[in-house]
Amino acid sequence: MTKAMTPPQRMLAVLNRKKPDRVPVVPFIQAYAARVAGMPLDEFWSNGDRYFDANLMSMRLHGYEQSPLYGYAACGPWEFGGKIQMPKNNGDTAPAVINHPVRTLEDIDRLEVPDFKKKLPGAYAIADQTAERCVALGMPAGFQVGSVFSAAAQVAETTQFLTWVMSKPDAVHMLMEKVSDMFINALCYFADKYGAENCMPFQAGPMEVNGMISPAQFEKMVHPYNLKVNQKIRELGIQTVLMHPCGNQNLNIPYYVQMREACNWHGRYIWIFGPETPIANQMKAFGEKDIICGNVDTLAIVEKPYDEIVELCKSVIETGKSNPGGFILAPGCEFPADAAPIKVMAFMEAAEQFGRYQ
Q1: Which of 158, 180, 292, 312 has the most CB atoms around it within 10 Å of its CB?
Q2: CB-based contact 270:202 (threshold 8 Å)
Q3: pLDDT tens sequence across 273-285
């Protein structure tokens, strides 16, 4: 009998364009891990060592292939001098903005880009704690470097920012230049400290959804800054990037393809689109070169029973398993923090039953 691979061996096989024994499972778990560890959410999010510990416990409990990856949707405001609030088990599951550093156009002029030289700004100090623990155990250093548009929409008061997209595009570009410079400084810091070969930056873009901005606006406001950050990733020699275009971004796929080509990218993107973007569409755009993640609907994870979740996982495995660039079973966004542990078990069961390559 062939000995089963370990989780690190499965991920390494997929990254190296080889077939593992079964489809890896990356359930995009964050706050759920705090529940598994019995850890208060404010403690989980405010200390990189505790964040790592809780995630490692969840990994060991369930046996999935995801390594700890610190980051949250409200990236940007704290780093530019605003304020966030850690969740207090009051319904919030991640840090939330309580003071945006940009509320007026004049605030954009005054905004200073963090340089990462003396003190790491905001959540990057916490992410660095987690990354150090990861690299010590042979896991990648994960840290957030986008999306620029979504981060800018948090640095500025969000409603005001979206108004400026239409009425003050020059101001929006000025703000996004500063946000992209911060992400580039983060890339340089982590690559220098841990080595480019040990880094896996990630980019998440919930504000770019097609219902929020048009493809034409994406081309003008989002694409240039995606390109700027990813060109720096290419220049530094980082080989793996986790990309999470959240929500319905079907009409934006051509620009992600253009970004990849313009960077002359030789590494691997790991794509986690929302469930609104069919796996077949992703495979057509990126499948020959990149890893596609199966995007099980997160709402279904909460609402549907175990057997139905296994079937949903089976469906995405059967579609994506043959992807030439590799396939990973995952939800379409963060695993629900309040989901029952058997919901993670459903992912693992589906991978074992239907995700075998040999």
Answers
A1: 292
A2: no
A3: 999 999 999 999 9
Q: Which residues of 107-131 are buried (b: 16+ CB within 10 A; e: fewer)?
A: bbeebebbebeeebbbbbebbbbbb
3-state secondary structure (DSSP) of residue 252: helix
CB 147, CB 207: distance < 8 Å: yes
Entry pTM? 0.96
Annotated domain spans of the chain: 1-66+290-358, 74-271
The terminus-to-terminus CA distance of the chain in angstroms comes to 11
Beta pairing class for 96-99 and 83-85: antiparallel
Q: What are phi and psi of 173, to 5 degrees?
A: -65, -40
8 Å CB contact between 96 and 86 = no
DSSP state of 103: S
CATH numeric code, 74-271? 3.20.20.210
Q: Which of 137, 166, 167 is nearest to 55 (CA)?
A: 137
List pLDDT tens digits, range 4-34: 899 999 999 999 999 999 999 999 999 999 9
Nearest to 220 by CA among 208, 205, 230: 208
The token pair at 187 is 């890339």
In sequence order, the 6+-apart residues with CB closer than 8 A to the CB of 295 are 272, 273, 274, 275, 277, 279, 316, 330, 331, 332
**Both structure tokens of 23:** 């489809």
φ, ψ dihedrals at 221, nearest 5°: -100, -25
Identify whether 214 is preceded by a cis peptide bond (ω within 30 of 0): no
